[in-house]
Amino acid sequence: MKTARISPGTLQLTRFGAVNAFLVREDDGFTLIDAMVKGSEKGLAAAAADAGAPINRIVITHAHSDHYGSLVALAKLQPEAELIASTRDARLMNGDKTPEPGEPEGKLRVPFPDLGVSFDRLVDEGDRIASLEVVATPGHSPGQIALLDTRDSGLVVADAYSSLGGLATTAGPYWKFPLPGFVTWHRPSALESAKKLRALDPAWLAVGHGKPIADPASQMDKAIARSS
Fold it and tell me: Which letter does DSSP use for residue 30 in this model?
C-alpha cells in the first residue's frame, strides 16, 4: 500500500495504483475515509499505526464495494472505531434497495448485498465528523457524500470526480478511465454534485481513483464543461 501526504493533516493510501482511502488526523487519532477493496484491512490498520495514531472513525463515502470492501474485516481489527455512513447509502449497504420518496429514477448498476454492518452514526448534508463537514453529493450513488476539511478547505470527493487520465466527473464514462461513469446511478445528479463541489472552491481535491490535485478550480471547470 502506497502512502502519500496531501496536506499536513491528510494522508492518501493507494492500492493497485487506482483505489484510494484517506487518513485524516484529528486530536484524538485518525478518521479513515473509505475501506478500499476486500483484503485491505491489514494494510489500512498498518498505515495508521505507522503514522502514529489509532483509527477512531471509519467513514464510508458510498455503497460501492471498492469503497466498503474491507469494512467488515477492518471493524473487527479496530473494534473501538465508530462506523459512519450517509443515511441513504447505509440502507443500500444493508441490502435495502427501496428508493426514497421523490428520488430521481436512477439505475442501481452494481450489487448491494447486506453487509450485516450496524453503523454507529448516520450523517447527512452539513453534519460534522470531527473537523470534516459532510457535503451531500448524490449521483454516482444515491447517497454519496464528500468531506470538506474545515481547517484548510481541502475536499475529499469520493467518486464525484476521478483523476486517472485527467480530472473528470462521473456524470458519464470518461474515455481515459470510464469505469466510474459506467456505474453512476443518476448522471444528471452526478453533474449537479460536481458543480456543487466546484462552488466550494477547494484548496485541494482528493478523489477515490487517481492522484490528488492542488488548486483544482480550473481542472474542475474543464471536467464539468466536458460533461455538460
Answer: E
* Residue-range definition of the domain harbouring residue 213: 2-227
Distance between CA 52 and CA 224 in Å, rounded? 38
Cell of 80: 473501538
pTM over the 0.85 mark? yes
Residue 145 to residue 137: CA distance in whole angstroms? 5
The domain that holds 76 is classified in CATH as 3.60.15.10
> For a pLDDT cut of 90, what percent of the chain falls above it?
98
Distance CA 27, CA 30 (A): 8
Cell numbers at 61, concatenated: 463515502
Confidence tier at 41 by pLDDT (50, 70, 90): very high
For residues 14 and 22, what is the distance between their CA atoms, to the nearest angstrom? 9
